[in-house]
Amino acid sequence: MRLAHRLRGLTLLLVVPLLAAVGCTRADRGVAEGPVVDRGPAAEVRLGYFPNVTHAPALIGVEKGFFARELGDTKLTTQVFNAGPAEVSALLGGSLDIGFIGSGPAINAFARSDGESIRVVAGSTSGGAQLVATPGITGPDQLRGKVVAAPQLGNTQDVALKRWLSDRKLPVGNGADEVRLTNADNPQTFDAFRNGDVQAAWLPEPWASRLVVEAGARVLVDEKDLWPGGRFPTTVVVARTRFLEEHPQTVAALMRGELAAMDWAASHQDQAQALVNDVLRKVTGKELPRPVLERAFAGIELTPDPLAGTFPRLARDSVTAKVLRTVPDLKGFVDLGPLNTVLQAGGRSLVDAAGLDRK
Fold first, then answer.
1. CA 257 to CA 64: how far, in whole Å?
2. Which of 182, 199, 216, 306 is the most buried (most CB within 10 A)?
């Protein structure tokens, strides 16, 4: 049986948490009623992230203790996710306070909670996503009749893939002239590509590099080439709105920890790559070969700037991908107050919210 059929049930299971989050009440989404009061530092902060190179600031911040040092007496609890929609469910359900997440799921969470539940508080990573394919596929039209994978329905790469296919007027479906899309966890896609069940995949790092270096794939599209200046937000940092309003000092502490992680990675590049590789080994059970690691890091930029000016286009892409029905109003989506306070205190350049910090 081909992978597209084997994964049909899996795709439905992955949709359930997202749909559950969509139907949440205000309380379920972590939107409490009543006036907001600054309660000072939180007793605990629950932080989510992925075991991906594109989440390197989170991995380094946790492993090197940068977050814990800045948080002081605030307890840090972490949770690892494999894709954005699952993390969105945790955020909207109130079981997660802050998360490193893809730009697509961040926009979707904001839209589905009527602009109430989350705010983008910082950037993390720009770049680091590619559409890779078997060597025989050299152009878009050759994807017709082929199985193309993305990590999870509605995640950042899934949206990017569907927008790209739409722009090239490539139909999606199971016909011989259509592109057959499927969603699976990255390790499953890697195995399916090597087995011939998947012929192309739009993936974040290090998975794009793994398919290129270890499985013989070729790059069909580097997402950098689709954006002005080659910059787009692969990973941003979001916070539950209520948590941000009640504990801005805790959010600022995490921002200091993230900046410390980025500074350390910039001045200790080899050590940073080794640390991230060690974390990936612990989580996935396998470390990356050195060529894969070097290629993956070469394709990303660690930055606290969420590149807010790209969000309107990303929101339109979510509609094109049929993740959202209408383009959401993104006013109030971004709150860079804690980050810019930290940046200013450190004598660094402030980050622009592109007008999305105003209702």
1. 10
2. 306
Mean pLDDT along residues 37-50 = 94
Are 50 and 82 in contact, with CB atoms under 8 Å apart? yes
Q: Quick one: which of 201, 184, 226, 180 has its CA closest to 134? A: 201
For β-strands 233-240 and 98-101, DSSP reports them as antiparallel
Q: Would the CA dihedral through 335, 341, 343, 349 be positive or negative?
A: positive
What is the predicted pLDDT for the residue at 285?
Answer: 84
Which domains, and CATH codes, for the chain? 3-127+232-345 (3.40.190.10), 129-230 (3.40.190.10)
DSSP 213-261: HHH--EEEEEGGGGSGGG--EEEEEEEEHHHHHH-HHHHHHHHHHHHHH
Nearest C-alpha neighbor of 278 from the set 59, 125, 38:
59
